[in-house]
Amino acid sequence: MTLDPITTEVVLSRVRETTEAMAHALFHSGYSPILRESQDGTAGLTDADGRVIMVGGGIQYHSMLYTKSVESLLMAYPGDAMEDGDSFICNDPYQAGNSHVPDMVVATPVFYEGRRIAFGVSVAHKADVGGLVPGSSGAGSREIFHDGLRLPPVRYWTKDGVIPEIENIIRTNSRVPDVVVGDLRGQVGSTRLGAERLQALSDEYGVDTLVEAMESLIDRTRDRVRAEIATWPDGEAQAEGFMDHDGADPATPVKIHVRAVKKGDRLTIDFSGSDGQTKGPINTPAQTCKAVTVLAAIAASDPTIPVNSGAFEALDIVLPDGKIVSPVFPATVNHYFPTSHLAYACVVAALGKLNPSRAVAPPGLGNGAIAIGYREGRSGRPTVQYELMVTSLGGTADHDGTAMVMGMCHFTPSTPVEIVETEYPIRIRKFDTWEDSAGAGRTRGGIGFVREYEMLSDVILTCRTANHEQPGWGVEGGEGPPVCVTSINPDGPDSEELAALDTREALAGTIVRLEQTGGSGYGDARRRPPEKVLKDVRNGYVSVAAAAEKYGVIIVDGKIDADATKDARG
Amino acid sequence: MTSWMVGIDTGGTFTDLIAFEVDTGELRVAKVSSEQDDPSGAVIAALEDLFATGVAPGEISSLVHGTTVATNAILEGKGVKTGLLITDGFRAVYEARGWAQPEATDLIDPFYRKPPLLAPQSLTHGIPGRMDYQGNELAPLDEDAVRSAARSLKEEGVDSVAVCYLFSFQNSAHERRTADILAEESGDWRVSLSSVVLPTIREYPRQSTTVIDAYVGPNMQRYLERLSDRLKEFGVETPQVFLMQSNGGLMRITLGARFPNQTLLSGPAGGVVAGEELARITGQQDIVTLDMGGTSTDIAMISGGRADETNEGRIAGQDIGTPMLQVRTLGAGGGTLAWIGPDGLLKVGPESAGASPGPACYGRGGERPTVTDANLVLGALAADNVLGGKMTLDKSASEAAIREHVADPLGLEVVEAAAGILRIVNTNMAVDLRLAFQSRGEDPRKYMLAAFGGAGPLHSALLARDLNIPKVIVPLYPGINSAMGLLQTSVRHVYLQSAVAGLSEVSADRMNEIFAGLEARVEDDVREEGFSPDQVAILRQVDMRYQHQGYQLPVNCPATQLTEEDKPGLKKAFDETHQRVYGASAQEEDAEVVTFRLIAEISVPRLELPEIGAGGDPATAQIAIRPLFDLNSASFLDAAIYDRAKLCAGDKFDGPAVVQQFDSTTVVLAGMSCAVDLWGNLIIETGAGV
Fold first, then answer.
1. Beta-bridge mates of residue B555
2. What is the rounded CA–CA span in Å between residue B206 and residue B172?
3. In the predicted model, is pLDDT for residue B387 greater than 70?
4. Which one of A144, A255, B637, B652 has the largest count of C-beta atoms within 10 Å of its C-beta?
5. How far is B526 from chain A (nearest CA, A)?
């Protein structure tokens, strides 16, 4: 049977409604600021075999891991072992496909008349699941066992409700059990809502129609990605970038290398030239690397193409085992985030060479997070403050890069100063734009920022950003931005610059400053219209000195010196 | 003596006027183009049309205006040059705009852009001085820095200054002192303080809202002064001149320049208020309104007779935290285009042919098929009954457009393709409606669907059936509903004050003190409006949440002074609300109070919908029989065609039927029945939901 294009569109609209409803439930039932302010999670649907159909809301690079989660789940609970009403959890990256152990996956099989037709799935970052440090993602991790509690696929819920023994294991292993369990239950609720909705849609449209429409969505994405690729000229392009080091061996930068080969409607993206997996925690699980590759490929072709497993069928992603982007057990992966972002930037760079009409300068490198563990929050209970740190987008052929968003998925995870200070014993001294932090170019990168904290109690502080030594790069003659800097007591006599990845005890009164870089520049900075440079100077984005040095625009007393500018620009 | 109540709603394309004579219930309407150099021109033009019918300016007893002046200033980037003073070292708050997140393809498109800053960083000055989270002063205000910023902004020639310091909702002293200094430095600018505009926690939405207030305030002030002058010139002398606010209530026009943000949703709010009035007269307290025009559809939920509110509004990408009615807008209207997507599936919208060139059947150069074209082909619309016969539609043009752009590419017959267009636009609306119900935890079976706009009544029966909504109501004048709503509400002011604390920790005295502070503001404002404080009815609410949650829910507070004994009742009410909306509650957990809310209302003369005459024999109103396509059986059925003007109270008939009137058409599906109530509303029983 082939469904007509009208019924298919109608049914798929209802599937979209389902995933939106799931995302709404997820983000409105969570307890931790991570879900509500950073939206660090997703909810969606896979088919009965785990192919991703559609994901609602949240952070899209979390969307492709579900295939591995479901495959592991089917191995752990084969045959009739899963029952209608069950929900399962898993957070071992080597089984669930999640990026690191704080990202817990929930999967609820959807049954209709005894047949398993799909899974309602969700992943969400947890405030703490044990491990070396509060927030679980410590710089000192050297194997996955250090990262925190690892759960294999395990039944967490039945038609009669939660399985308390399992929940107790999670509670026992978290520094903030109430928040973690509250969020986890929110995820379960979201996936079960998805299951109920799909059952109702099966009643309404017929189960075969529903399943066929959902499967067709995967085929449509595959076909659209292939059709877009077919319009590019055949060719080959390469790109590479470096992480400072893995946290264990500070002397050795770690390379990600991408070779992209386009032939006909096939695109091969090969990471074989990347360095091997590391001892420290900067490894990125293969499933995450694949997800960011898909996002980059769609960004470089047509962002209206729905993100689902169909993209994998259009791309050949080559990821030999044991690379920084495809580590094998028991490598630690807790600091995967900036590495996956660098992988994204490399794929975008390579594909931009193959399809220049969609080429952009890369977003600033150095995305990451901070986690601060308190013995007592304002409420008197132990608590963990977790904030994502982003950068800004690169310049495009049309306009300057957008400021302060996550590069591979354009969220602005900025927890309000007033919320942070109300909930935690900490003061934010600064959340300011950072002059000259954007890569120069005909269109410049988005501006970066400085965020500065003062501890009001003794804490355990983990700063995990990236690219404090290895800079980003510009495109079409544009320049990269400066590197990120994290410093302790920056203006005092005991000032100290931290490595990108650092965990330490910090006493009350300690000041921590994070300087997060802007995006890269696109095109020759000396071709940027001088009036735009003057505007940047007036806005505090570019200094007078940088205007002269990088842009060849001479500004005297707030005005452009036209003659001097002409001389400077040659 | 004759006495007319007049509502004037300025929309994007047209300005609608309705006038009701208070004693006789006589209705007069006027419609003029909104496109004038001076937006007050359209208001005056509409009034001139009314006066041409014999109404004298002195006979106008009250006038309510819905305006888009503030909204357009944002949409078109035509607000004033605005300076911004913030806590030193926090320029990234505005630049980051970390609140609402991008949607759809913006999420992954590297060409994504954020909306422009209404106050650029070049006009932003950081001022040293700091309050902590409880409002204790950590560092004093640097008054010299304020003075020097003021001088610099004066040199730049800014017209308006926004001030937003951290934790000013807890302690506004620094902002108030800043306002004094700004006044000393120049009397020429308007000053917006965040502690006045929106004293609530979360610095970004507070700041964005304050900047909007500063950015559009002077435009609003100029507009209202000009309008008041022109009304006076005309001899409209009643002091009862009001503006419709985004919260569905009125404010005296004299207050408008102080609260420009309150008008940003002025137009759609009128339609929602009309829905509330339908809830009141029919006794059906739960209503969802569907206002479908040429390019878009507005959806709003009314529960227990009261429309939903939000404080997460967005106008042209600019975030605004001022409480407003929650209206969801989606790109589905009569002029919405049908097309084949890159995935090979039939799509409807969001692009629209608008009024020009409009649907193919208008014969104004539109060649692509629209929802209106589909409705014409399916027999829901008559070719000769548009605007009372002033305009005819070209059905063959509709068929040709559908054939070329939909039917042939998909290998379908024209009628099948038209039915597909109808199904898909309907599904798009149904998806949004279902999400609206879900986000509130509401059951559609309790609801009535109120259909407005030229196209709402065409689609409402089908939608109700899909959603399991048992009843549809179509008011007598669905096309001028927003203007009608202007005359059906009270003066309403909403005041907010954040003060975050555990419910078990905060004393009743402290809560009373906060409410007393808000009540003092009510008194000031209503006196300025010319009312006496004893005319005011006050509702007190507290927005509460469980600890760590990022969203809160309002709970009603007793009207009397609170005592410690009231707290368990508040907690219980919160638990129950949370259970209803989110399907869960945590009775064992302490709750936090986040924001105190005071809603002040004053009754003003309002339009009572007149009853229409009784009939009983709808056959006298039947003017034709026409084939109408039925989606269920995929075939044309004979439908009775009625003239709305001839239907009387008590008339009943069964579907399939079509009710035609000047600017709207109602479809009643096979298997449904329709009755006319005392006020001339059509009530369709859909047979669903029982």
1. B542
2. 13
3. no
4. A144
5. 32
CB B452 within 8 A of CB B293: no
CA A87 vs CA A101, A112, B590: distances in Å: 19, 16, 29
Choose among A16, A413, A540: nearest Cβ to B431.
A16
Q: Which of A431, A433, A451 sits opposite B121 (nearest CB)?
A: A433
Q: What is the pLDDT of residue A30?
A: 61
Cβ contacts (< 8 Å) between A177 and chain B: which residues?
none
Q: What is the pLDDT of residues B226-269, one digit of tens each?
A: 999 999 998 998 888 999 999 999 999 999 999 999 999 888 89
Cα B143 vs. chain centroid, distance in angstroms?
41
User: What is the distance in angstroms between the Cα of B554 and the nearest Cα belonging to chain A?
Assistant: 15
Record the tokens describing residue B77, joined without a space: 């980037």
* Contact predicate B127/B85, CB 8 Å: yes
Best mutation target, A28, A412, A435, A543, to test chain B (most B CBs within 10 A):
A412
The answer to whether the CB atoms of B110 and A419 lie below 8 A apart is no
Q: Do B112 and A393 touch (CB under 8 A)?
A: yes
Contact A371, A506 (CB under 8 A): no
pTM over 0.80: yes
- For residue B690, what pLDDT is reported? 60
Q: How many beta carbons lie within 10 A of that of residue A263, not counting itself?
A: 13
User: Phi/psi zone of residue B113: left (φ > 0), alpha (ψ -120 to 50 degrees), beta?
Assistant: beta
Residues 6 or more apart in contact with residue B95 via CB below 8 angstroms: A403, A404, A433, A447, A449, B117, B121
A411 contact residues in B (CB cutoff 8 A):
101-102, 107
**Cα–chain-centroid distance for residue A244?**
19
The answer to whether A23 faces chain B, any CB pair under 8 Å, is: no
Q: Which residues in chain A have their CB less than 8 angstroms from residue B420's CB?
A: 5-6
Would you call A127 an interface residue with chain B, using a CB distance cutoff of 8 Å? no
Radius of gyration of chain B (CA): 26
- Which CATH architecture is the domain B4-73+221-263 placed in? 2-Layer Sandwich (3.30)
B611 strand-pairing partners: none
Q: Where are the domains of chain A?
A: 5-221, 360-525, 529-570
Number of H helices, E strands in chain B: 16, 35
Q: Find chain B residues with C-beta within 8 A of A35's C-beta.
A: 550
Each domain of chain B, given as residue ranges in start order, spans 4-73+221-263, 78-214, 336-424, 497-602
Average pLDDT estimate for A245-255: 94
Which tens digit of pLDDT belongs to each residue from A16-45?
999 999 998 888 766 666 676 667 889 999
Q: Does residue A117 contact residue A48 with C-beta atoms inside 8 Å?
A: yes
> What is d(CA B319, CA B244) in angstroms, rounded to the nearest whole number?
20
Question: Which tokens go with A18?
Answer: 């389902």
- ipTM of this predicted structure: 0.94
Decide if B326 contacts B307 (C-beta within 8 A). yes
The answer to whether B668 and B656 have CB atoms below 8 angstroms apart is: yes
Q: Over 60: is that where the pLDDT of B301 sits?
A: yes
For tokens 């669905």, the residue is B478
Q: How confident is the model at residue B26 (pLDDT cuts 50, 70, 90)?
A: confident
How far apart, in Å, are the Cα atoms of A551 and each of A350, A543, A545, B253? Answer: 26, 11, 10, 51
| DSSP for residue A381 | S
Q: B500-543, pLDDT tens digit by residue?
A: 989 998 999 999 999 999 999 999 999 988 888 889 999 999 99
CA-CA-CA-CA torsion sign (A537, B317, B106, A409): positive
pLDDT grade for B100, boundaries at 50, 70 and 90: low
Q: Which of the following CATH numbers is that of domain B78-214: 3.40.50, 1.10.10, 2.40.160, 3.40.1350?
A: 3.40.50
pLDDT at B389 over 70: no
Q: How far apart are CA B94 and CA B119, in angstroms?
A: 9
